[in-house]
Amino acid sequence: LKAVVVRGETPTPLAHPERLREHARDLARRSRGDATAKYRELGTAANLLSFERVASLPTRNFQSGHFAGAEALSAEGLREGRRVERASCAACTIGCEHRYRRAGSGAPVRVEYESLFALGPLCGIEDPETVLDASSRCDRLGLDTVSAGGTVAFAMECRERGLLPEAPAFGDGPGLLALLDDIAGRRGLGALLAEGSRRAAAQLGGAAPTFALHVKGLELPGYEPRALPAMALGLAVAARGADHNRSNAYEVDFQPDAPRSVEAIAAGAVAAENRAALLDSLIFCKFLRGVFDDFETEAAELLDAVTGWGLDAEALRRAAREIVDAKKAYNLREGWVPADDTLPPRLLETPLPDGASAGARLRPETLSAMIRAYYRERGWSSEGVPPGLPLAGDPPPGRRA
Questions:
Q1: Contacts with 266 (C-beta within 8 Å, 6 or more apart), sequence order
Q2: Is 319 within 8 Å of 278 (Cβ atoms)?
Q3: 263-309 pLDDT, tens per residue?
Q4: For residues 209 and 201, is the Cβ–Cβ distance under 8 A?
Q5: If residue 172 lies in a helix (H) or strand (E), which one and from where to where?
Q6: Helix, strand, or coil (residue 141)
Q7: Are the C-beta atoms of residues 361 and 351 closer than 8 Å to each other?
Q8: How many Å from the N-terminal Cα to the C-terminal Cα in the chain?
Q9: In Å, how far are 1, 130, 131, 167, 386 from 170, measured between CA atoms?
Q10: Long-range contacts of 364-368 (CB under 8 A, 24+ apart)
């Protein structure tokens, strides 16, 4: 299932159209400011060199945080002679999408950080042509680039460890491209990998599950949890697994006065997750998050201009908490247990080996303490259950023995 489309036929009136126009003009003006400059100038690909500088660029299936070929894949490196155009969503004032040409006659390729990381450093690939081609193939084939790259990187490490001799080696560009086609067609090794790294690892057995880098079955995005503790927590507890769009807690780690205590990290992760829930529910672009002085207050004013509901900032903050609680309730119904809120063994057992973050590690007891603090911050039980909900496997209220 790729989408659910709903089309209505009845016009919906605006509660306060003139006030909404004023808000929209002001928001458009602010959206052209410094808070969104990175997205206009380089796009999300600007992150690649930033993470490389602090050795937090996941490389070779998270075996390292440093990639020697980062410069060639960076936005700065790619735009020399390759950038063709910028594009945007309808009526967008930011225009974050940057398209680059490939050698030959191929159509321009949309370039994003996550695609560059997952199909480049994560697989040990430094050739820009290969990475652009791989990204284009994923778009055409309907493959998520993060999960595709993460699953291929897992297979590459399986080869390195003698578990999958037929898989391509790290750095094998032609092998990556061929394997993407095979995954989409469920041919040969692609039939196994089309199920994702968690299921593939379970079928292979042995040590394979220990280096399948996923949370709740979703492959990790391009952030190194051992160097970014708030992001580590956000990925571990996110309802959908390792999802940077449902918890952009890395912003907490990049603050000049980044919190160090587990309580402060948990509070920052909860605030980031709540804000992401509101941004999605109000249908705001997440790249606008930096233009607001007081997001909940300003969002409430915008919502009232559209609907006339009269909700205030506190009502939106309460709604955000209820959204996250509802997602946890869904997971509980489907069998979630506390052990599911965790990170892959590699990230809890092995320090980063090189670069500016050499020696950085995330100890299991530290992650556990952060998770407990996160549950407390949300008002959940010590097992991560919102009030009034049973733990998975418990009988429903009123039917207990």
A1: 233, 370, 373, 374, 376, 377
A2: yes
A3: 999 999 999 999 999 999 999 999 999 999 999 999 999 999 999 99
A4: yes
A5: none
A6: helix
A7: yes
A8: 40
A9: 32, 13, 13, 9, 43
A10: 366/229, 366/262, 367/232, 367/233, 367/236, 367/342, 367/343
